[in-house]
Amino acid sequence: MDNRPIGVLDSGMGGLTAVRELLRVLPHEDIVYFGDTGRVPYGTRSAEIVTHYALQDINFLLGRQVKMVIAACGTVTTTLPDSLVRRFQFPYTGVLSPTVEAALAASRSRKIGVIATATTIRTGAYERELKKRDPEAEVISAACPLFVPLVENGFVERDNKVTRLVAEQYLAPLKEAGVDTLILGCTHYPVIAPLIGDVMGGKVALIDSGRAAADHARRLLAEENLLTDRKTAGKCSYFVSDAPEDFARNASIFLGEGFCGEVARIEITNYPDTI
Ligand code: DGL
């Protein structure tokens, strides 16, 4: 048993897709969330910069005495070198392997689409992991760099004309290829899942990487005997590196009643980038 909070990080509000699931499956856990809103997006940056940012984010969370770290960010997950992750002295999960597992469980035709940030697609990590587990899988990938700024700016309603137009263009090759499963490999994308679903058509299974990571974290904490023994609702604390008001407004749209409304700004550049 461990009553310390779970730490969740992302470049902005995308990681709330993991928080939403954590609130559902682990309602008694405390959560500390960090969204690096002052430096979003990560998904257009080099591996060196993403690693530097991610280590500062992790050190912030460790300073809040978290019992595990969830990198609820596809870009961080696919960019952090394995050699570095192996050195972590705390329970950690990213989104890659739980998402791939969920996609393979959902797909019948083994024709799987992956959409993610440009940095994630460049790493080839989703394609590699899918093919490692199922060499027969056919993978069609597309970078969707405009989705993150659209989500961060609140262009998230199902009938938003701008986001719809962008989605139609990005998703056309995946539709044409006839994928039966689409991995939302950036945690921002599930925020606009209803719109993406409308564009792809009802038969395509959408795999939410934030949810997959949260479900995996729950299993990990249970296995390690690290779940809380409290029976009251957990507390969520949100931290960002830029204007808390913008984050609070958009987060409350997304999390609804799950959002407690307390957001504090911190100076993330003060944290070390070594582990
Ligand atoms: N949510 C992040 C991800 O999953 C967004 C990356 C970005 O900031 O571009 O990749």
Following the backbone from N to C, one meets helices and strands in this order, namely EHEHEHHEHEHHEHHEHEHEHE
Radius of gyration: 17 Å
Q: DSSP strand (E) fraction? A: 15-25%
- Low-confidence segments, given as residue ranges, are none
Shape: globular
Give the neighbour order of strands across the main sheet.
Answer: 4-3-1-2-9-10
Structural class: alpha/beta
Q: What's the average pLDDT?
A: 96
Helical residues, percent = 40-55%
Instruction: Give the beta-strand count.
Output: 10
Euclidean distance between termini CA atoms: 25 Å
Helical run tally: 12
Bound ligands, each once: D-glutamic acid
Described by strand count, sense and barrel closure, the largest sheet is:
6 strands, parallel
Characteristics:
275 residues; 6-stranded parallel β-sheet; 4-stranded parallel β-sheet; globular; 10 strands; binds D-glutamic acid; alpha/beta
Brief write-up:
Helix content is 44%, strand content 16%. It has 275 residues and is of the alpha/beta class.
Question: Mind sketching the topology for me?
Answer:
Blueprint: E1 6-10, H1 16-25, E2 31-35, H2 47-63, E3 68-71, H3 74-79, H4 82-85, E4 92-93, H5 96-106, E5 111-116, H6 118-123, H7 125-133, E6 138-143, H8 147-152, H9 161-177, E7 181-184, H10 193-200, E8 205-208, H11 209-223, E9 236-240, H12 244-255, E10 263-265
Helix pairs in contact: 1-11, 5-7, 5-11, 9-10
Bound molecules: D-glutamic acid (DGL).
D-glutamic acid binds near residues 14 and 42.
